[in-house]
Amino acid sequence: MIQTIRNAWAVPELRKKILFTIFALLIFRLGSAIPVPYINSDLLADQLAMQSGTILGLMNAMSGSAFSMATVFALSIQPYINSSIIIQLLTVAIPALERLAKEGGEEGRKKIASITRYTTVAIALLQGFGYYSLIKSYNLIQGGSLNAIWVGVVIVLSFTAGSAFLMWLGEQITEFGIGNGISIILFAGIVSRFPRMVSDCISGVNVWSGVKNGTITMETLTGMGMSTAQAQAQLKLALAPWMIPVIIIGMLALVVFIVFISNAERRLPVQYAKRVVGRKMYGGQSTHIPMKVNMSGVMPIIFAQSIASLPATIGAFAGWGQEHMMMRLFDTTKVFYSVLYFILIVGFSYFYATMQFNPIEVSNNLKKNGGFIPGFRPGKPTADFIAKVLSKITMFGALYLSVVAIAPIITGNIFGYHSLAIGGTSVIIVVGVALETVKQMEAQMLMRHYKGFLE
User: pLDDT (tens digit, 9 = 90+) per residue, 330-362?
Assistant: First the structure.
């Protein structure tokens, strides 16, 4: 990976794209530090620190701590992700949108993108209002003598504008930078949390030592002015020292496993028939069709996470407490959420696989070029065989993603340290986005070499 980045840096065109991406990410991190007016962000951070293992903690991790600080980019890229899910599902369900996507060409894709943008703004307004209601329920609004309606409008519009700007910034990275802009922004937000995660581990060990020595108890914490809920949350952060190497080894093993599966592929043998044109003979060579085991990349994880966390997000913004039935049901550390997360990952894996790989189209292209898969007649038999292989590979890839996503949740419940659930999902997204971005850089370098050779 490092060698690929060095080689890309040596190419002037790619160097400009890398610098543009870095500059865009600097803007993203700058906006993540600009607070929205009229909000007591210090007290808000303390409130959300007690909910590190909940849906609010997950949203904070995905936004790079911008959510807990109530900054301009607090909603991060989540409204755009939710909008993309809705529009893509509607494209399958509504014939008019399906025709626009498949037969509309470039103009159709632009209209779909325009609809997605408007939907993003609408979702951002709803989430911004929900976040404002959450902050208001904590009595953290500092409007003073100002009109409450004006304060609410400023806060909601600030969150909405920040989310819309991130959507635009992601599109600019996709067009002028390296990789998928939305994934890159999500990647940057998670990576920026790594120093905080290290600090949390150190704090957890200190709390564990205090509990072990008897210097930190419910009585001492409440005596220091903490509420009962704050004291309980503080005690839950206790992390045994032997857990640190377990977490590090587990994360490294997860990275190795993700890289191994991401590079795995099933190769379907293809034989081209010999044909004579004039005095020359064409065809007769053997090749293969590469089919990636994890064809959908990291997108099923991102989309499944957004859908599975939606009810709890609505509940959190509506002011429901952690004891509410819906909040307990969709708790990120509980069985129901894990099962729903698992099913959604499998579903989105199949959804993306069918969108990216069409067996009928591949079969027709082979037939037109005189190719065939040994043992299968051209046409429908070949398409059926490819579809069968695709189904098996997609199932394996979906199970791989699901198990990797659920394993940290199970481990967190066993060891009683629920931040592992969020950390595991973050590792999957970070490694997946990094691999996809490096592959895009390699593809662009390869294309440039071919272009130079042809010229």
Answer: 777 778 888 888 898 888 888 888 877 888 888
pLDDT confidence bin for 230, thresholds 50/70/90: low
Domain boundary among the residues 192, 219, 234 is at: 192
182 shares its domain with 256: no
Q: How confident is the model at residue 454 (pLDDT cuts 50, 70, 90)?
A: very low
* Same-domain pairing of 146 and 253: no
Could you give the number of structural domains in the chain?
2
Q: Is residue 210 part of a domain?
A: no
3-state secondary structure string, the chain?
CHHHHHHHHCCHHHHHHHHHHHHHHHHHHHHCCCECCCECHHHHHHHHHCCCCCHHHHHHHHCCCHHHHCECCCCCCHHHHHHHHHHHHHHHHCHHHHHHHHHCHHHHHHHHHHHHHHHHHHHHHHHHHHHHHHHHHCCCECCCCCCHHHHHHHHHHHHHHHHHHHHHHHHHHHHHCCCCHHHHHHHHHHHCCHHHHHHHHHHHHHHHHHHHHCCCCHHHHHHCCCCHHHHHHHHHCCCCCCHHHHHHHHHHHHHHHHHHHHHCEEEEEEEECCEEECCEEECCCEEEEEEECCCCCCHHHHHHHHHHCHHHHHHHHCCCCCCCHHHHHCCCCCHHHHHHHHHHHHHHHHHHHHHHCCHHHHHHHHHHCCEECCCCCCCHHHHHHHHHHHHHHHHHHHHHHHHHHHHHHHHHHHHCCCHHHHHHHHHHHHHHHHHHHHHHHHHHHHHHHHHHHHC
Q: What is the pLDDT of residue 284?
A: 62
Q: What confidence tens digit (pLDDT) does each residue in 28-79 have?
A: 989 888 888 888 877 777 777 666 556 677 777 777 778 888 889 988 888 8
Q: Please check whether residues 435 and 317 belong to one and the same domain.
A: yes
| Average pLDDT value for the chain | 79
Q: Is the pLDDT of residue 422 over 80?
A: no
Residue 196 has pLDDT above 80, yes or no: no
Do 452 and 376 lie in one domain? The reply is: yes
* Last residue within a domain, chosen from 192, 215, 231: 192
Q: Considering the domain boundaries, does residue 70 fall inside one?
A: yes
**Which CATH number goes with the domain that contains 341?**
1.10.3370.10
The answer to the question of residue 415 being in a domain is yes
Domain that holds residue 316: 242-455
Instruction: Looking at the structure, tell me whether residues 247 and 311 fall in a common domain.
Output: yes
176 and 278 co-located in one domain:
no
Which pLDDT does position 14 carry in this prediction?
83
